[in-house]
Amino acid sequence: MREAMAAHTPSYSFEFFPPKDDEGETRLWQAIRELEPLGPTFVSVTYGAGGSTRDRTIRITERIASETTLTPVAHLTCVGHSRRELRAVVGSYADAGVRNILALRGDPPGGLGQPWKPHPDGLDHAVELVALVRDLGDFSVGVAAFPGGHPEAVDLDADAGVLVAKAAAGADYAITQLFFEAEPFLALVRRVRGLGCDMPIIPGIMPITSLSQVQRFAELSGTSVPTPIVDRFRGLDDPHDVRATGVELATALCRELIDSGVPGLHFYTLNRSKATREIFAALHA
Q1: pLDDT (mean) for 255-268
Q2: Is 128 a catalytic residue?
Q3: Minimal CA–CA distance to 253: which of 188, 178, 190, 192?
C-alpha cells in the first residue's frame, strides 16, 4: 500500500460504514458506484461499535474486491474476538483476495469511557494485532492515529510513542481519526518524526453536512468540533447552506494539508458521495 500511495501523491481514499439494513446497503452501493470513477487509491468499510457488524463488513468488503475496480482495505478490531477468530477473519479476507487490513484495537464494548477488557483469549493492543496479521502472510497493514491523542493516552507524547510502536510491529501507514483544524494533525506528525519514524500518516476528513451528526461522531471518537468551526454554522437553518459551508471548510482544510505535504487524504463519507465528490472536484479544479 505504501507503493500505491507513493504513486498517487497525494492519494485519495474513501471510508464507508456498514449499513444496518437492506435499504442502507442499497444507498451504500450507490455511493460506491458514484465514487468509483474518481479512482481512489483504496476504500475501506468499518466495523460497527464493538465489532457488531463484522459479518456484514466482511461480506461488503469481499464484494468490493470481486465486483468493482476498487482496492478494499478491510477493517479488523480486537473487540470481542479470540486469536483464533481473528485468524479466521484474516483468512476469510485473504480467500476473497483482500490483502490490505486496517488493524485496530477498537472501542470498549460498553462504549467510549468504559474500561477496556480484552477477550480472554484475545489481544490487548493494536500493536499485537499488527504483529498477528503480519505473521499470517503478505498483508499490507494500516493503523489508526489520533491528532488530539487517544482518549486513554497519558499524554500526546506517549500517544505518539504508541504509533511508533505500531510502525515497528509492521504497520505500513496510519489513518487519523477525524479532525477539523490542521495544527493538531501537523503537531502529531512532528512528534512522530521526532521519534525517528517515517511512516506515512494520512489525515481523516469528515465534511460537515449536518453539524449535530458530525458532533456525535466526533464525540464517539473522543474529540470535539472546535468552537470557531461551530461558530461558522450559527444561524444557518437551510440544510443547503450548512452543506455548502461544510464543503467550503473541508476543502480549505484539505488544501492546507496538501500544501504541508501530506501523503494523502482519507474521506469519511457517511455512505453518501455528494460532498466528497464536490471537495474532490474543487481540489482538482
Answers
A1: 96
A2: no
A3: 178
Put simply, whether the predicted model's pTM sits higher than 0.90 gets the answer yes
| Tens-place pLDDT, residues 162-215 | 999 999 999 999 999 999 999 999 999 999 999 999 999 999 999 999 999 999
Cα angle vertex 113, ends 107, 117, to 5°? 55
Q: How many CB atoms lie within 10 A of CB 166?
A: 26
Q: Indicate if the pLDDT at residue 49 is higher than 80.
A: no
Structural domain tally of the chain?
Answer: 1
- Which of 15, 62, 128, 278 is the catalytic position? 15
Q: Long-range CB contacts (< 8 A, 24+ apart) of 183-188?
A: 184/147, 184/148, 185/147, 185/257, 186/260, 187/147, 187/156, 188/145, 188/146, 188/147, 188/156, 188/160, 188/163
Place of cell 457488524: 53
CATH number, domain containing residue 201? 3.20.20.220
Domain range enclosing 105: 2-283
**Bridge pairing between strands 140-145 and 42-45:** unpaired
Of 74 and 112, more confident: 74
Q: For residues 252 and 202, what is the distance between their CA atoms, to the nearest angstrom?
A: 17
The contacts of residue 61 (CB under 8 Å, 6+ apart) are 45, 72, 74, 75, 93, 96, 98
